[in-house]
Amino acid sequence: MNDLKGKIAVVTGGSRDIGRAISVKLAGEGVKVCINYNHNEAKAQETLEMVRQAGGEAVLFKADVTKEAEVVAMFAFAAGTFGGKVDILVNNAGGIMGRKTIEEQDEAWYNALMDLNFKSCWLCTREVLKYMGKGGSIVNISSQAARDGGGAGSSIYACGKAAMLCHTRAMAKELGPRGIRINAVCPGMINTYFHDTFTKPEGREALHRSAPLRREGEACEVADLVSYLASDESSYMTGNGIDINGGCLFS
Fold this sequence. Notes:
By secondary structure, this protein is of the alpha/beta class. 46% of the residues lie in helices and 14% in strands. It has one domain: NAD(P)-binding Rossmann-like Domain (Rossmann fold, 3-Layer(aba) Sandwich), CATH 3.40.50. It has helices spanning 17-28, 41-53, 68-82, 107-128, 145-148, 155-175, 193-198, 201-210, 219-230; strands at 8-11, 32-37, 57-62, 88-91, 137-141, 181-187, 241-244. Helix 4 packs parallel to helix 6 (155-175).
């Protein structure tokens, strides 16, 4: 069993889907969790209630993690609430926002996607170091898109997730001597709102026929991997990008 009891975590984009599963999983392991959300307070409240029903401890904090001032306030709140430190950061905030070919993309689209999928990770990683010491763990939620360029119309999303993966490797070198580990998870198709909204049913059905495991993944399976990477059970792992895609892509 992961020895996570009593640790403090911040999970960005924690109100639903993979972020929700991670928040509930960590809280179930005895972690005190600051669940970040931006737009959907109702979903965040649902996640908080799930944590409490499971006997865990968590708080909510509304912040746009692409904004420096809001990131600073979030970590100050999390540390101030739970004893002055943060042991675990999960950079989960991100999204595709829509699908556009390169001719359809404009500068505002580029900035919005890169800010959401990479700047958020950069800002939160930089800020958490004020509160994280030896033994700390950062887990970045990247994507299979970082490996293969993503599906049609998702090029900037894929580039943002690839930047996150590269940043994981760079930070492993920089933070390792301080006793802080950082790894990335690269999910393939997971049964979430993301694919309900942005992936056509025929695309999902094709994966069910072709994937070695013949199914999509579930958010709880990603959460199990994140819990392992956050714990001391993975104490000699850093700088990794770990695929979780049912065998759809090997790297």
